[in-house]
């Protein structure tokens, strides 16, 4: 027995070291991005300043001047927030009806919604450009919000549906007995009960909107351009601007990574549509 | 009455919106794919606006099928998607099993591991291709340069010098060539999506039947056979789900390809469509229809595999 305990002690140590190594390796690129963002553009490409250098805030202080960061960031916030709000506004009633009054068609409707996610965006690239340009909505916040909402709506409905399904039907029925109308049921019973689920759906939807990089790049030029567009437009600095590009990139992903840390669990449930618990 | 109509009414905004979103652009793509339609043409100005009189039948499809880029783009799409799926599933299972048991700092390691998943694709690509993989200025270039200097220094060392004089001069790999940039895309997307696989497998491992496992240990089952006969079958369903979700996302991979491969010939279907759409809308639309067909084949296959389990 002693031998077993001994070997498992070493085994545990080995596993701990290995696990930490893997974790640090995966985090390293992000660490590197943040580290580079504190170097001047000149220092960023010099091997002698790899880890030891004089840190500077210059890149962050000049973000507005160099890249007009705040304009793009504001656009990202506006489009992501409103797309999330609209997706919830359309998604909550829909998921509510599906969870508490399911019909034979409900499963098929849910599957069909998921299948719209599989439609390759590129296939409808030109019609979307053509349509938005011809009705004068190309490069507007409104268009970006609508598109972001539509591409995330299936996932939002699926997530909400899996959360609502967990709520006992009797609670809703009790509300109906008391003569509460549907709007009242949603507002007074459903939303307070499913608050956690709704919040994590909103968070995940927001993250997806923020990171979206097909339509935001193709349907905007300047007015409604988001951070994805900003980074995509400065993709090849040829080593000249590593420092400042790192700073603006770190500023673009930092808040979302922190948000993501808080919704790991919900991410699993949401992205697997409740199939993995 | 309200038992039936009200639920329908509540669902209708979502259903109608998604229906419009699906049908209108897609039917336009279908229409454009059968006509001659280009954005700029001095010789044939009548082709620059969509019209039934420019009907081309399956001409655009023929044109796309005959262009050498098309087959390459399909192969490349499949190469990229399959490699990413393979790598993320293998790495995901290994890492999930590794960090599933408690160890000091487990929470922190989890947070470190999941972080790449939230990096926006544009930043992911810019970061990897410039700051890390660049053959001269990136970490790769610096590391290879450092290694060469080290080996050169050791050649003059006593005793072991002869050994290092056998070593060649190392060359950094450029990830901006046609084929290597596909590898760069695979590396960066694998980095981003392995955490997702880990997270899902870990969640699933926590619901693994511990009694069964203890019984196996008492029976003297080795760690490998526990993994092979208990853990792996338990992970079957999450693996299928990870494959399905990633296939959906990676078939329409765009930002990474756009940033890494602009102008060097490495393309997948979405990128090829974007290229055609600069002028030849007919060809872009026909390619789009091919992309839809490919996505449908994959979707039908995947939904058959996991669709039923989703509804339980």
- How would you name the CATH homologous superfamily of the domain at 68-122 and 189-310 in chain B? MetI-like
CATH architecture tag of the largest domain in chain A:
Orthogonal Bundle
Largest interface: A-B, 94 and 105 residues
Name given to the CATH architecture of the domain at 68-122 and 189-310 in chain B: Orthogonal Bundle
Query: Can you write the helix and strand succession of chain B as a string?
Result: HHHHHHHHHHHHHH
CATH class of the largest domain in chain A: Mainly Alpha
What best-fitting shape of chain B do the alpha-carbon axes yield?
flat
- State which percent range the strand residues of chain A make up: under 5%
Low-confidence stretches of chain B: none
What does this structure look like?
The complex is a heterodimer of chains A (277) and B (312). In chain A, 46% of the residues are buried. Helices cover 73% and strands 0% of the residues of chain A. Chain A has helices spanning 2-37, 58-61, 63-67, 69-100, 106-117, 125-134, 141-165, 169-177, 182-193, 195-211, 215-218, 227-233, 242-262, 264-271. With 277 residues, chain A is mostly helical. With 312 residues, chain B is mainly α. Chain B has a domain at 68-122 and 189-310: MetI-like fold, CATH 1.10.3720.10. Chain B is flat. At the A-B interface, helix 1, helix 4, helix 5, helix 6 and helix 7 of A face helix 1, helix 3, helix 4, helix 5 and helix 6 of B.
Highlighted features:
heterodimer, A: 277 residues, mainly alpha, MetI-like fold, 2 domains, 73% helix, 0% strand, globular, B: 312 residues, 14 helices, 72% helix
Topology:
The complex is a heterodimer of chains A (277) and B (312).
Chain A: H1 2-37, H2 58-61, H3 63-67, H4 69-100, H5 106-117, H6 125-134, H7 141-165, H8 169-177, H9 182-193, H10 195-211, H11 215-218, H12 227-233, H13 242-262, H14 264-271
Helix pairs in contact in A: 1-13, 4-7, 4-10, 5-7, 7-10, 8-9
Chain B: H1 2-32, H2 59-66, H3 68-100, H4 106-114, H5 121-132, H6 139-155, H7 161-165, H8 178-205, H9 210-218, H10 223-234, H11 236-251, H12 255-261, H13 269-276, H14 281-310
């Amino acid at each position: 027995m002693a031998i077993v305990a001994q070997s498992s002690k070493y085994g545990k140590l080995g596993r701990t070291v290995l696990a930490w190594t893997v974790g640090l390796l995966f985090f390293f690129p992000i660490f590197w991005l943040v580290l580079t963002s504190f170097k001047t553009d000149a220092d960023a490409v010099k091997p002698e300043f790899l880890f030891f250098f004089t840190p500077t805030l210059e890149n962050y202080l000049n973000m507005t001047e160099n890249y007009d960061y705040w304009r793009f960031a504001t656009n990202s916030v506006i489009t992501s927030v409103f797309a999330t709000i609209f997706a919830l506004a359309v998604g909550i009633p829909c998921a509510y009806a599906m969870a508490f009054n399911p019909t034979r068609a409900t499963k098929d409707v849910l599957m069909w919604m998921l299948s719209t996610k599989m439609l390759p965006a590129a296939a409808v690239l030109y019609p979307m450009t053509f349509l938005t340009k011809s009705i004068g909505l190309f490069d507007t916040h409104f268009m970006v919000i609508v598109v972001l909402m539509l591409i995330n709506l299936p996932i939002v409905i699926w997530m909400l549906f899996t959360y609502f399904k967990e709520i006992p039907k009797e609670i809703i029925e009790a509300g109906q007995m008391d003569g509460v109308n549907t709007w009242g049921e949603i507002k007074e019973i459903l939303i307070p009960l499913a608050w956690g689920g709704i919040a994590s759906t909103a968070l995940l939807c927001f993250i997806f909107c923020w990171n979206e990089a097909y339509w935001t790049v193709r349907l905007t030029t300047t007015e409604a351009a988001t951070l994805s567009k900003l980074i995509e437009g400065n993709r090849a600095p040829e080593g000249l601007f590593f420092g400042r590009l790192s700073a603006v990139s770190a500023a673009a992903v930092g808040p979302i990574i922190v948000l993501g840390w808080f919704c790991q669990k919900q991410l699993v449930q949401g992205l697997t549509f409740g199939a993995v618990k | 009455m309200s038992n039936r109509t009200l639920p329908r009414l509540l669902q209708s905004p979502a259903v109608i919106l998604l229906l419009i979103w699906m049908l209108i652009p897609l039917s336009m793509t279908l229409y454009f794919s059968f006509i001659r339609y280009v954005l700029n043409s001095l010789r044939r100005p009548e082709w620059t606006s969509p019209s039934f009189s420019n009907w081309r039948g399956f001409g655009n499809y023929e044109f796309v099928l005959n262009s050498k880029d098309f087959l390459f783009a399909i192969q490349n799409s499949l190469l990229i998607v399959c490699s990413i799926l393979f790598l993320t599933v293998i790495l995901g299972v290994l890492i999930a099993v590794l960090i599933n048991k408690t160890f000091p700092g487990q929470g922190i390691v989890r947070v470190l591991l999941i972080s790449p998943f939230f990096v926006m694709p544009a930043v992911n690509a810019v970061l990897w291709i410039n700051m890390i993989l660049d053959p001269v200025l990136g970490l790769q270039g610096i590391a290879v340069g450092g290694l060469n200097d080290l080996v050169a220094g050791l050649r003059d060392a006593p005793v072991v010098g002869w050994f290092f004089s056998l070593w060649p001069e190392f060359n950094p790999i450029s990830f901006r060539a046609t084929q290597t940039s596909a590898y760069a895309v695979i590396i960066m997307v694998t980095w981003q999506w392995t955490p997702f696989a880990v997270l899902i497998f870990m969640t699933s491992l926590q619901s693994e039947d511990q009694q069964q496992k203890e019984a196996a240990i008492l029976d003297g089952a080795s760690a490998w056979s526990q993994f092979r006969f208990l853990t792996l079958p338990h992970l079957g369903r999450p693996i299928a789900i990870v494959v399905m979700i990633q296939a959906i996302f990676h078939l329409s991979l765009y930002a990474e390809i756009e940033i890494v491969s602009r102008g060097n010939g490495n393309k997948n279907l979405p990128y090829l469509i974007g290229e055609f759409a600069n002028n030849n809308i007919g060809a872009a639309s026909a390619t789009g229809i091919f992309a839809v067909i490919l996505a449908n084949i994959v979707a039908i296959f995947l939904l058959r595999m996991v669709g039923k389990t989703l509804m339980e």
